[in-house]
Amino acid sequence: MTVSRRLFMAAAVTTAVAASSNSLALATPAATRTTAEEPHFRIPISTEDSPEDLVAKASQVRPTKRQIAWQSLEKTAFLHFGVNTFTGLEWGTGDEDPNVFQPTGLDTDQWARALRDGGFKLAILTVKHHDGFVLYPSRYTKHSVASSSWRGGQGDVLRSFAGSMRKYGIKVGVYISPADENQYLDGVYANGSERSARTIPTLVEGDDRAGADIRTFTLDATDYGAHMLNQLYEVLTEYGPVDEVWFDGAQGRIPPEKVETYDWDSWYAVIRALAPGATMAVRGPDVRWVGNEGGLAREDEWSVVPVKDSGNGSVDYALRYDAPDQGSRDALAQSRAVAQYLQWWPAECDVSIRPGWFYHADQQPKSVDQLADIWFRSVGRNSVLLLNIPPDKDGLLPVADVARLKEFRERIDRELPEDLAAGARVRDDREGTRTVDLGTEREVDRIRLAEDIRHGQQVEQFVVEARVGGAWTEATRAGTVGASRVLVLPAPVKAREWRLRITQRRSAPHIARFGLYRSRV
Asked: Is 192 left (phi over 0), alpha (psi -120 to 50) or beta?
């Protein structure tokens, strides 16, 4: 039996997947339906909407369960590893000799222990970078670990990585670059082929899956799009549960007339079907790129932003990806001419612990002060930090980096030790005002806030005050809150009573956290 569904960016895939079928056919849609699992994560808008209409609609946008779980991670890890580790390049050429890949001391348990000790909850491996070299033995390319003499051609970094991460309680993410220099050289990537219905997986000669009762998909794709679908199928069916699939929008370093138009809708569909709990970032419907590779969010970072459809089901920024404002009232009004939807599309801040994304022996990790500053300007600004830690040529995380990760976690623990407001008397005087009575005067120099984002993101401006000498005195003020907002006071303030006042909002705010801390730094 074949189940047919129309979908927009796979928003309705969960409905199709629920059907009892081994074969799934998905057509490319123009509709904007969502399912009960994903209520109001995208709301249509038009040029006829007034600025007030846009604000009202933005207040109604809600995250999916998948997005809520992702935002709660706060700090995730990236592991750039591949032929570039051994050639010294940041962007490979695609014609590398696979035999250059020789991580003779590979120990992914060491990676996992270091990440666990650093406080990371999810790690993403570069299963394939732009050069096309694959870290598992794929049936669809010879540019992989299977063509290296490392471990007699039987090596599988992805399998080792996934097993180690799960062993130490870390979620598994995969990065599969949409660009592929090797497939370009082979005449597959950017070959001008038309989109047509493809059966996935496409069995190859001697395929060990032949005759098995496996799930199949009929999806529109180019030649290269089908290649990606086949590799996604391998990764998502043979390596256990995957919690995040990370894409960027990179194009190969090829002539401009040879651009490959990616089959995002089909890629999203197969991911939703095979890994329904996986977050799709950052060129995906669940998470967006913050717009820089410095790990820094905007001062006021919105999770509800205006977006447009850029073709083949791909969500895209209505404003520039690096615009200083993505979601304020002014930003919503400015986007009206091009935006089609308001969407819950929270920001991820990616940055490498070293100057490069791949390991280079002459580089050193960032200092603890630098990493702490990045944390406050990412996690502390309603975003998730994605920190890259590149394994070295031996297949190990460098000693200096491992030590720095532990120091980084300990530093944040000292920045925000016990919450002085935990167990304190809390009074919500009226909508938008919360008062905390600590019972005695305490010094405070860090404040952490959070909205219950199940009810959307509503706070636009707020003030935190302390009752000093019998009078309410402003301690700090800022704009957005979202899932996490952390503020550093210029000097400690000593007071028994503290008050949060929401001075501008979109709809009724739901405050989940009003934490008060005295740092030990």
From this structure: left
Percentage of the chain exceeding pLDDT 90: 90
Closest CA to 293 of 351, 372, 358: 351
Token pair 């022996």: residue: 361
CA distance 174 to 245: 5
Helix (H) / strand (E) element for 225: namely helix 223-238
Tell me whether the omega of the peptide bond preceding residue 157 falls within 30 degrees of 0, making it cis. no
3-state secondary structure of 499: strand
Closest CA to 39 of 13, 71, 64: 64
For 47-105, the DSSP string reads TT--HHHHHHHHTT----HHHHHHHTT-EEEEE--SHHHHH--SS--S---GGG---TT
Angle subtended at Cα 437 by Cα 431 and Cα 439, rounded to the nearest 5 degrees: 165
Nearest to 339 by CA among 304, 314, 305: 305
Alpha carbons 268 and 249: distance in angstroms, whole number: 14
Confidence of residue 13 (pLDDT cuts 50, 70, 90): very low
The string of pLDDT tens digits covering residues 30-49 is: 333 344 444 599 999 999 99
Report the pLDDT value the prediction gives residue 32, as an integer from 0 to 100: 34
The alpha carbon dihedral of 89, 93, 94, 99 has a sign of: negative
pLDDT of res. 14: 33
Supply the pLDDT for residue 429.
Answer: 86
